[in-house]
Amino acid sequence: MSRTTTKISPFKAHIDQFQADLNQKAGRTTAEVQELVEGKKLYKLSSNENVLGPSPKALEAIRKSLANLHEYAYRTDDPFREALSAHFEGELTPDQFVTANSGLEIIDMLARGFLEPGLECILSNPTFHVYEIFSQLNGAKVVNVPLLEGEFELDVEGILDAINDNTRLIFVTNPNNPTGTMIPRETMDRLVNNLPPHVILLHDEVYWHFADQSCFPFAKDYVLEGKNVIGLHSFSKAYGLAGMRAGYAFCTPRIADYLQKLRRPFFISAMSVEGAIAALGDVEHVEATQNLMKAEKPFLYAAFDELGIRYWESHTNFILFKSPIAVDELVNKMLAEGVMIRSGANNGAPGHIRVTVGTHEGNVAFVEGMKKVLG
Ligand SMILES: Cc1ncc(COP(=O)(O)O)c(C=O)c1O
Fold first, then answer.
1. CB of 128 closer than 6 A to ligand 1?
2. Mean pLDDT in the chain?
3. With a 6 A CB cut-off, is 269 part of the ligand 1 pocket?
4. Residue 224: its pLDDT value, please?
5. For 13-53+284-374, CATH number?
6. What class, spelled out in words, does domain 56-282 have in CATH?
7. Structural contact between residues 275 and 69, judged by C-beta atoms closer than 8 angstroms
């Protein structure tokens, strides 16, 4: 017989009260919308994927790994972390990496590891909506210090002012999703060099391959200085492996050792490890992707100029623009033209639309569609 007399809820209040539908916020797949456009060729320019497809070297490695799928292959992720250390030319050691089945999973681990009710994180909207979700799911208060209006610059002083004894995490996306803009090195230096020791900064650089490398503040350099900065990379963007699910963080050995405790046994999929290691060596695919972005962005900028549409120069594989008509109307009418684009609203930019930079054919379809829809 239970000795409990009062009514006790089995549900954690902050999870129970959480309203956002995570799947609803994620972009639609081609399979979901194909039937809406009845046999028309569909260009998916809505989820910042690699329009050249997956890294061929990764595909080959994944194919080879299939025969061993009956095995619990990766009790540890040592081979993956050693490959990452080699990829960083030994500047970071294997004990400075934390691997996971995607960048999202790393963000989830950070929220679980560093946040709880009573603690706080800081982010700067418009930005990737997932930081807010995982922080709230762990009961933390989310403090928004918005990007500065106009050019979406980081409000460094505002962030430093918002830090208090309860602050544990700062999320910075650089280059940023959904704006495509980049925070230059001197701005990040001002932030990183003024952080108190109880605050950890995530530098989410999953789009770094597309940034202006001459002034990009690589998290690696802060980590080498021993700063409380965690870099985040993903295999979903330049490597074209969004469906495979692999990502990793790099940081000081102290932070990495702490995060390792959050990994379940046999945490990472064997296909992810083997595909990711092969992708790291697929320089040709990454360069082809970078070159396509460099070649195609000016084409889209010119089209926006011609249409009189405000856009932001992008350091990513997508471009944000101000919608000249109601966002949903433009998104739906473009879908009818066979081009999937995405409202910025979920990522804090209502009234704006994000378009992935496609192949030239896809970009022409986008521009033609826009001209038709906007008359
Ligand atoms: C800024 C940012 N960070 C992290 C991710 C997560 O990437 P993934 O979970 O596919 O590795 C994304 C995906 O779109 C992103 O835009």
1. yes
2. 95
3. no
4. 98
5. 3.90.1150.10
6. alpha beta
7. no
